[in-house]
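Homework help board

Subject: predicted structure for assignment chain

Our instructor gave us this sequence and asked us to write out the predicted structure in C-alpha coordinate form, then describe one feature. I got the C-alpha coordinates but I'm not sure how to describe them. Can anyone check?
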Amino acid sequence: MTSTSYLPILELIRGTTRESIHFGAIAVVDSHANLVASYSDPQTTTFLRSTSKPLQALALIEYDGHRHWGLTPKEIAIICASHAGTDAHIATVSGIQARIGITEDDLLCGTHYPLDKPTARAMRSRGEKPTPNHHNCSGKHTGMLALARLLNLPMKDYINPDHPIQKRILQTFSEMCDLESDDVALGTDGCSAPNFAVPMQNAALGLARLCDPHNLPAKRAKACRVITNAIISHPEMISGPGRFDTRLIEVGAGSIIVKGGAEGYMGLGIMPEALASNTPGMGVTIKISDGDAKGRARPAVALEVLRQLGALSSSQLEALSEFGPRHSIKNQREIIVGEMLPIFSLNIR
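My C-alpha coordinate output:
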Protein backbone atom coordinates (compact mmCIF):
# COMPACT_ATOMS: atom_id res chain seq x y z
CA MET A 1 0.00 0.00 0.00
CA THR A 2 1.38 3.39 -0.95
CA SER A 3 0.36 6.95 -0.21
CA THR A 4 -0.96 7.20 -3.76
CA SER A 5 -3.71 4.74 -2.76
CA TYR A 6 -5.47 7.62 -1.01
CA LEU A 7 -6.73 11.08 -1.92
CA PRO A 8 -7.98 14.02 0.20
CA ILE A 9 -11.43 13.09 1.47
CA LEU A 10 -12.38 15.28 4.46
CA GLU A 11 -11.01 18.58 5.72
CA LEU A 12 -11.32 20.74 8.81
CA ILE A 13 -11.38 24.49 8.42
CA ARG A 14 -10.61 26.84 11.33
CA GLY A 15 -11.53 30.39 10.46
CA THR A 16 -10.77 30.47 6.76
CA THR A 17 -7.69 28.24 6.91
CA ARG A 18 -7.48 24.50 6.36
CA GLU A 19 -6.19 23.11 9.65
CA SER A 20 -6.17 19.37 8.96
CA ILE A 21 -7.13 16.88 6.29
CA HIS A 22 -8.00 13.20 6.12
CA PHE A 23 -7.11 11.05 3.11
CA GLY A 24 -9.06 8.01 2.03
CA ALA A 25 -10.45 5.66 -0.59
CA ILE A 26 -13.95 4.41 -1.46
CA ALA A 27 -15.34 1.52 -3.51
CA VAL A 28 -19.01 1.00 -4.46
CA VAL A 29 -19.90 -2.34 -6.06
CA ASP A 30 -23.26 -3.87 -6.94
CA SER A 31 -24.30 -7.49 -6.45
CA HIS A 32 -23.53 -8.23 -10.12
CA ALA A 33 -19.86 -7.40 -9.36
CA ASN A 34 -19.95 -4.11 -11.25
CA LEU A 35 -17.83 -1.27 -9.91
CA VAL A 36 -20.53 1.40 -9.64
CA ALA A 37 -18.43 4.22 -8.21
CA SER A 38 -15.10 4.86 -6.55
CA TYR A 39 -12.79 7.46 -5.15
CA SER A 40 -9.04 6.99 -5.26
CA ASP A 41 -7.96 3.38 -5.90
CA PRO A 42 -10.72 0.78 -5.36
CA GLN A 43 -8.06 -1.93 -5.47
CA THR A 44 -6.47 -0.62 -2.27
CA THR A 45 -5.85 -3.66 -0.08
CA THR A 46 -6.33 -3.27 3.65
CA PHE A 47 -7.87 -5.04 6.65
CA LEU A 48 -11.63 -4.89 7.13
CA ARG A 49 -11.24 -5.27 10.89
CA SER A 50 -14.71 -5.46 12.49
CA THR A 51 -16.43 -4.66 9.19
CA SER A 52 -15.91 -8.34 8.37
CA LYS A 53 -18.11 -9.55 11.28
CA PRO A 54 -21.38 -10.08 9.36
CA LEU A 55 -19.44 -12.08 6.77
CA GLN A 56 -17.62 -14.02 9.50
CA ALA A 57 -21.00 -14.92 11.02
CA LEU A 58 -22.26 -16.33 7.74
CA ALA A 59 -20.68 -19.77 8.23
CA LEU A 60 -22.61 -20.36 11.48
CA ILE A 61 -25.91 -19.44 9.85
CA GLU A 62 -25.19 -21.41 6.68
CA TYR A 63 -24.67 -24.52 8.84
CA ASP A 64 -28.13 -23.83 10.36
CA GLY A 65 -26.52 -22.96 13.68
CA HIS A 66 -29.24 -20.44 14.40
CA ARG A 67 -31.87 -23.15 14.15
CA HIS A 68 -29.86 -25.73 16.10
CA TRP A 69 -29.24 -23.31 18.99
CA GLY A 70 -32.56 -21.49 18.72
CA LEU A 71 -30.91 -18.11 18.13
CA THR A 72 -33.24 -15.13 17.92
CA PRO A 73 -32.69 -12.29 15.44
CA LYS A 74 -31.42 -10.17 18.34
CA GLU A 75 -28.82 -12.82 19.17
CA ILE A 76 -27.78 -13.19 15.54
CA ALA A 77 -27.34 -9.40 15.36
CA ILE A 78 -24.98 -9.33 18.33
CA ILE A 79 -22.85 -12.07 16.77
CA CYS A 80 -22.33 -9.58 13.90
CA ALA A 81 -21.73 -6.65 16.26
CA SER A 82 -19.15 -4.44 17.87
CA HIS A 83 -21.44 -3.85 20.81
CA ALA A 84 -21.03 -1.10 23.37
CA GLY A 85 -21.25 -3.32 26.44
CA THR A 86 -24.57 -2.11 27.83
CA ASP A 87 -26.49 -4.32 30.24
CA ALA A 88 -28.76 -5.34 27.35
CA HIS A 89 -25.76 -6.39 25.26
CA ILE A 90 -24.25 -8.44 28.09
CA ALA A 91 -27.58 -10.15 28.76
CA THR A 92 -27.93 -11.06 25.08
CA VAL A 93 -24.44 -12.53 24.80
CA SER A 94 -24.83 -14.38 28.10
CA GLY A 95 -28.10 -15.86 26.90
CA ILE A 96 -26.42 -17.37 23.84
CA GLN A 97 -23.63 -18.81 25.97
CA ALA A 98 -26.04 -20.45 28.40
CA ARG A 99 -27.86 -22.10 25.51
CA ILE A 100 -24.76 -23.52 23.84
CA GLY A 101 -23.17 -24.63 27.10
CA ILE A 102 -20.22 -22.28 27.48
CA THR A 103 -19.32 -19.35 29.72
CA GLU A 104 -17.50 -16.10 29.07
CA ASP A 105 -14.38 -17.75 30.50
CA ASP A 106 -14.20 -19.74 27.25
CA LEU A 107 -13.79 -16.54 25.20
CA LEU A 108 -10.30 -15.60 23.98
CA CYS A 109 -11.09 -11.99 23.09
CA GLY A 110 -9.60 -10.31 26.16
CA THR A 111 -11.33 -7.59 28.18
CA HIS A 112 -11.93 -3.85 28.14
CA TYR A 113 -14.37 -1.47 29.76
CA PRO A 114 -17.64 -0.99 27.85
CA LEU A 115 -17.63 1.46 24.96
CA ASP A 116 -20.90 2.82 26.35
CA LYS A 117 -19.69 5.64 28.61
CA PRO A 118 -22.57 5.62 31.13
CA THR A 119 -22.15 1.86 31.61
CA ALA A 120 -18.38 2.20 32.01
CA ARG A 121 -18.79 5.04 34.52
CA ALA A 122 -21.28 3.04 36.54
CA MET A 123 -18.95 0.04 36.64
CA ARG A 124 -16.01 2.15 37.78
CA SER A 125 -18.11 3.79 40.48
CA ARG A 126 -18.94 0.33 41.81
CA GLY A 127 -15.33 -0.79 41.56
CA GLU A 128 -16.39 -3.42 39.04
CA LYS A 129 -13.84 -4.76 36.58
CA PRO A 130 -14.76 -5.69 33.00
CA THR A 131 -15.04 -9.32 31.97
CA PRO A 132 -14.75 -10.94 28.52
CA ASN A 133 -18.43 -10.36 27.77
CA HIS A 134 -17.87 -6.60 28.00
CA HIS A 135 -15.47 -6.83 25.06
CA ASN A 136 -17.09 -5.42 21.93
CA CYS A 137 -16.25 -8.64 20.06
CA SER A 138 -17.73 -11.06 22.61
CA GLY A 139 -20.71 -11.73 20.35
CA LYS A 140 -18.46 -12.70 17.46
CA HIS A 141 -16.40 -15.02 19.66
CA THR A 142 -19.52 -16.58 21.11
CA GLY A 143 -20.71 -17.25 17.56
CA MET A 144 -17.42 -18.90 16.69
CA LEU A 145 -17.73 -21.19 19.71
CA ALA A 146 -21.33 -21.94 18.75
CA LEU A 147 -20.08 -23.13 15.37
CA ALA A 148 -17.35 -25.25 17.00
CA ARG A 149 -19.85 -26.97 19.30
CA LEU A 150 -22.34 -27.42 16.47
CA LEU A 151 -19.72 -29.28 14.40
CA ASN A 152 -18.33 -31.19 17.41
CA LEU A 153 -14.96 -29.51 17.00
CA PRO A 154 -12.54 -28.58 19.79
CA MET A 155 -13.20 -25.28 21.53
CA LYS A 156 -9.59 -24.94 22.62
CA ASP A 157 -7.62 -22.46 20.50
CA TYR A 158 -10.68 -21.78 18.33
CA ILE A 159 -9.10 -18.52 17.12
CA ASN A 160 -6.09 -20.26 15.58
CA PRO A 161 -6.16 -19.69 11.79
CA ASP A 162 -5.57 -23.43 11.38
CA HIS A 163 -8.61 -24.35 13.48
CA PRO A 164 -11.30 -25.98 11.30
CA ILE A 165 -13.90 -23.30 12.07
CA GLN A 166 -11.52 -20.50 11.08
CA LYS A 167 -10.82 -22.29 7.82
CA ARG A 168 -14.57 -22.53 7.18
CA ILE A 169 -15.05 -18.85 8.01
CA LEU A 170 -12.19 -17.88 5.70
CA GLN A 171 -13.55 -20.02 2.88
CA THR A 172 -17.00 -18.47 3.16
CA PHE A 173 -15.58 -14.95 3.35
CA SER A 174 -13.34 -15.45 0.32
CA GLU A 175 -16.17 -16.89 -1.77
CA MET A 176 -18.40 -13.93 -0.93
CA CYS A 177 -15.61 -11.58 -2.03
CA ASP A 178 -14.89 -13.58 -5.23
CA LEU A 179 -11.39 -14.52 -4.14
CA GLU A 180 -9.42 -17.67 -3.47
CA SER A 181 -8.64 -18.25 0.20
CA ASP A 182 -4.93 -17.95 -0.55
CA ASP A 183 -5.53 -14.45 -1.94
CA VAL A 184 -6.80 -13.20 1.43
CA ALA A 185 -4.01 -11.77 3.59
CA LEU A 186 -4.41 -12.80 7.22
CA GLY A 187 -3.67 -10.80 10.34
CA THR A 188 -4.59 -10.95 14.02
CA ASP A 189 -7.38 -8.61 15.08
CA GLY A 190 -7.51 -6.64 18.32
CA CYS A 191 -9.66 -9.41 19.81
CA SER A 192 -7.05 -12.04 18.75
CA ALA A 193 -9.27 -13.66 16.09
CA PRO A 194 -8.05 -13.86 12.48
CA ASN A 195 -8.84 -10.87 10.28
CA PHE A 196 -8.75 -10.38 6.55
CA ALA A 197 -7.13 -7.89 4.17
CA VAL A 198 -8.52 -7.79 0.63
CA PRO A 199 -8.96 -5.17 -2.09
CA MET A 200 -11.71 -2.72 -1.17
CA GLN A 201 -13.57 -3.56 -4.38
CA ASN A 202 -13.77 -7.24 -3.39
CA ALA A 203 -14.87 -6.42 0.15
CA ALA A 204 -17.61 -4.18 -1.25
CA LEU A 205 -18.75 -7.06 -3.46
CA GLY A 206 -19.01 -9.29 -0.39
CA LEU A 207 -21.27 -6.75 1.31
CA ALA A 208 -23.34 -6.30 -1.87
CA ARG A 209 -23.92 -10.04 -2.10
CA LEU A 210 -24.81 -10.16 1.59
CA CYS A 211 -27.56 -7.59 0.96
CA ASP A 212 -28.64 -8.97 -2.41
CA PRO A 213 -27.82 -12.69 -2.65
CA HIS A 214 -30.01 -13.31 -5.70
CA ASN A 215 -27.27 -15.12 -7.63
CA LEU A 216 -25.86 -17.17 -4.75
CA PRO A 217 -26.66 -20.83 -3.98
CA ALA A 218 -30.01 -21.15 -2.21
CA LYS A 219 -28.62 -22.13 1.19
CA ARG A 220 -26.14 -19.28 1.26
CA ALA A 221 -28.69 -16.79 -0.02
CA LYS A 222 -31.05 -17.79 2.78
CA ALA A 223 -28.26 -17.37 5.34
CA CYS A 224 -27.48 -13.90 3.98
CA ARG A 225 -31.09 -12.85 4.39
CA VAL A 226 -31.16 -14.16 7.96
CA ILE A 227 -28.18 -11.96 8.81
CA THR A 228 -29.37 -8.78 7.11
CA ASN A 229 -32.86 -9.18 8.58
CA ALA A 230 -31.36 -9.56 12.06
CA ILE A 231 -29.18 -6.45 11.65
CA ILE A 232 -32.05 -4.35 10.30
CA SER A 233 -34.51 -5.51 12.97
CA HIS A 234 -32.07 -5.03 15.88
CA PRO A 235 -29.77 -2.08 15.16
CA GLU A 236 -29.38 -1.51 18.91
CA MET A 237 -27.31 -4.68 19.07
CA ILE A 238 -24.87 -3.73 16.28
CA SER A 239 -23.23 -0.85 18.14
CA GLY A 240 -25.17 0.91 20.86
CA PRO A 241 -27.29 3.87 21.96
CA GLY A 242 -26.54 7.00 19.93
CA ARG A 243 -23.62 5.41 18.09
CA PHE A 244 -23.34 5.90 14.32
CA ASP A 245 -23.83 2.33 13.14
CA THR A 246 -26.98 1.93 15.20
CA ARG A 247 -28.38 5.33 14.24
CA LEU A 248 -27.79 4.87 10.50
CA ILE A 249 -29.52 1.49 10.48
CA GLU A 250 -32.41 2.96 12.47
CA VAL A 251 -32.82 5.96 10.20
CA GLY A 252 -32.27 3.86 7.07
CA ALA A 253 -35.46 2.01 7.99
CA GLY A 254 -34.64 -1.28 6.29
CA SER A 255 -32.66 0.07 3.33
CA ILE A 256 -29.12 0.22 4.75
CA ILE A 257 -26.83 -1.81 6.98
CA VAL A 258 -23.49 -0.57 8.27
CA LYS A 259 -20.56 -2.07 10.14
CA GLY A 260 -17.60 0.02 11.19
CA GLY A 261 -14.12 -1.32 11.74
CA ALA A 262 -10.98 -0.17 13.50
CA GLU A 263 -8.23 1.89 11.86
CA GLY A 264 -10.55 3.91 9.67
CA TYR A 265 -12.51 1.16 7.90
CA MET A 266 -16.27 1.12 7.33
CA GLY A 267 -18.62 -0.98 5.25
CA LEU A 268 -22.14 -0.16 4.10
CA GLY A 269 -24.74 -2.39 2.51
CA ILE A 270 -27.53 -0.91 0.42
CA MET A 271 -30.51 -3.20 0.01
CA PRO A 272 -32.07 -3.97 -3.41
CA GLU A 273 -34.39 -1.23 -4.73
CA ALA A 274 -33.24 1.19 -2.03
CA LEU A 275 -32.06 3.63 -4.71
CA ALA A 276 -34.84 3.04 -7.25
CA SER A 277 -37.09 0.31 -8.58
CA ASN A 278 -35.16 -2.71 -9.87
CA THR A 279 -31.76 -1.46 -8.67
CA PRO A 280 -29.52 -4.19 -7.25
CA GLY A 281 -28.05 -4.26 -3.78
CA MET A 282 -24.73 -2.53 -3.33
CA GLY A 283 -21.75 -2.66 -1.03
CA VAL A 284 -19.63 0.32 -0.05
CA THR A 285 -16.22 0.20 1.57
CA ILE A 286 -14.47 3.24 3.01
CA LYS A 287 -10.93 3.52 4.35
CA ILE A 288 -9.50 6.57 6.11
CA SER A 289 -5.76 6.26 5.74
CA ASP A 290 -4.73 7.77 9.09
CA GLY A 291 -6.94 5.37 11.05
CA ASP A 292 -9.52 8.01 12.04
CA ALA A 293 -8.62 7.81 15.74
CA LYS A 294 -11.27 10.33 16.77
CA GLY A 295 -13.97 8.55 14.78
CA ARG A 296 -15.17 11.73 13.08
CA ALA A 297 -14.22 11.01 9.47
CA ARG A 298 -15.92 7.70 8.71
CA PRO A 299 -19.48 8.74 9.59
CA ALA A 300 -19.17 12.03 7.70
CA VAL A 301 -17.71 10.32 4.62
CA ALA A 302 -20.30 7.53 4.77
CA LEU A 303 -23.15 10.03 4.84
CA GLU A 304 -21.66 11.96 1.94
CA VAL A 305 -21.33 8.74 -0.08
CA LEU A 306 -24.96 7.90 0.61
CA ARG A 307 -25.98 11.47 -0.25
CA GLN A 308 -24.16 11.37 -3.58
CA LEU A 309 -25.69 7.97 -4.39
CA GLY A 310 -29.17 9.21 -3.47
CA ALA A 311 -29.58 6.53 -0.81
CA LEU A 312 -30.82 8.90 1.92
CA SER A 313 -33.57 11.50 1.79
CA SER A 314 -33.12 15.04 3.05
CA SER A 315 -35.11 14.20 6.18
CA GLN A 316 -32.94 11.16 6.85
CA LEU A 317 -29.78 13.22 6.42
CA GLU A 318 -31.19 15.80 8.82
CA ALA A 319 -31.87 13.08 11.39
CA LEU A 320 -28.18 12.08 11.18
CA SER A 321 -26.76 15.60 10.96
CA GLU A 322 -24.83 15.30 14.23
CA PHE A 323 -22.49 12.92 12.35
CA GLY A 324 -22.12 14.99 9.17
CA PRO A 325 -21.61 14.99 6.29
CA ARG A 326 -20.59 18.54 7.25
CA HIS A 327 -20.99 20.37 10.48
CA SER A 328 -19.64 23.19 12.58
CA ILE A 329 -16.67 22.82 14.89
CA LYS A 330 -17.15 24.33 18.34
CA ASN A 331 -14.64 25.13 21.04
CA GLN A 332 -14.99 24.52 24.78
CA ARG A 333 -17.29 27.56 25.09
CA GLU A 334 -19.57 26.24 22.33
CA ILE A 335 -18.40 29.01 20.00
CA ILE A 336 -18.34 28.01 16.33
CA VAL A 337 -14.72 28.23 15.22
CA GLY A 338 -14.70 26.22 12.00
CA GLU A 339 -16.25 23.52 9.88
CA MET A 340 -15.68 19.89 8.93
CA LEU A 341 -16.68 18.94 5.39
CA PRO A 342 -16.15 16.21 2.78
CA ILE A 343 -14.05 17.21 -0.24
CA PHE A 344 -14.59 14.32 -2.64
CA SER A 345 -16.80 13.52 -5.58
CA LEU A 346 -17.45 9.89 -6.44
CA ASN A 347 -16.35 8.73 -9.86
CA ILE A 348 -19.67 7.17 -10.87
CA ARG A 349 -19.38 4.68 -13.72
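Reply (TA_rk): Your C-alpha coordinates look well-formed. For the description, you could write something like this. The mean pLDDT is 97. That's the kind of observation they're looking for.
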